Amino acid sequence: MAAYPKIISNCTPRHKHPLSLCEGLAPYKCNGCKEYGANIGYRCNFCPNFTLHEVCGAYPDSYVHPFYPTLEFRFRKKTCMSHECDACGEVLKGFMYQSPRPNLLKPLRLHPLCIALPTSLNYSAHEEHPVQLIMETGGTFSCSRCNENKSGWSYRCDEMACRLRVDLVCVKVDINGLPEHGIASMKYDRWLLGNCCCT
Ligand SMILES: [Zn+2]
Ligand SMILES: [Zn+2]
Ligand SMILES: [Zn+2]
Ligand SMILES: [Zn+2]
Ligand SMILES: [Zn+2]
User: Fold this and answer.
1) Single pTM value for the model
2) How much distance in Å is there from the Cα of 106 to the middle of ligand 2?
3) Is the domain defined by 7-58 classed in CATH 3.30.60?
4) Per-residue model confidence as pLDDT tens digits over 144-168
5) Distance 117 CA to ligand 3 centre (A)
């Protein structure tokens, strides 16, 4: 993915106004996907407190993920609260990508932040080696970052000696720059009390 544009003059259906890429942002809750971000994001030129992740503002409406080369994921603006992301397992609360699967009732659904994760990542919490995105369905693993048993997609260091494996919830917190602001989870709504982000 090339660098994101500085200005998006027409970002329908994501938002009705032009958006500008801003740096130095305090932690915010993305008005698109409802997950947290910090440091960089798109702000509306007209609506106060409207901020989107770079991915939520500028990722293509149609995307083919390397794990599913025969499927086409399409951007969707709203979702039912009961759906979970097939990559990280967390509830989808806003912007998402969805693809039907042939012969299966349940479509695949992914967060924008999850669909945009690179297959190989230079990870701030493991600077020794790049880590690789893996999709193993079935079974659980112990996350090297939060020590909880997780399932779903993860990043793994392929150096045998490292045995590092991190779930996507932890990775998303780290690559969004949240720990440097004292935020350790995408779920900690109390960090942003007073920052209205309901629209
Ligand atoms: Zn977002
Ligand atoms: Zn606006
Ligand atoms: Zn996800
Ligand atoms: Zn390693
Ligand atoms: Zn974890």
Assistant:
1) 0.90
2) 33
3) yes
4) 999 999 999 999 999 989 989 999 9
5) 10
